[in-house]
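tool=predict chain=A
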Amino acid sequence: MATVNLTNTATDTMVFPARDYVGPVGVITRKFSVAEALAQKGSAIAASDVFNLIPLPHGSIFLGGSAFVETVSTSGSLDATLDIGWSGAADFIVDGVSVFSSGFCAIGTNGHIGPFITGGVRFDSGSADYIDVKIATLSGTLSDGVVRVSVVLADVGAGNTANTSNV
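tool=predict ok
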């Protein structure tokens, strides 16, 4: 098992940008490309590999998410499924989606897929985390396919540099 960071280190950060108001909410969308993951890892993709996709800043609340298989894998006769979530909840958004079926993915085992979940999930454990794509099962060699992952996050952390003088 390997963990590979696929975030864009030039633009993705672990803090929300400064705002003129409290509580910015945003949608972040990234694509998980099997070909890119393969290139970044530098060796064959294996079951239990974890790919960091979207940073979850300390002090953020996860409000919802979804995943959509954009490009179906043509890797041949094999079985491959993905889980999408974060450390401690690897299949929170999606549980066991096949990379051989196009369209929106079924909800995860916790049933918390967009647009909003009651109460949200707060990331304030003292360290940031990532939305991850985990290779749940794999038999054969996976070489292609693209899954678009979107999450809705709210910044409620102490790191929020919002101007609160008008609140």
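Helices lie at 34-41. The chain has one domain: 25-155.
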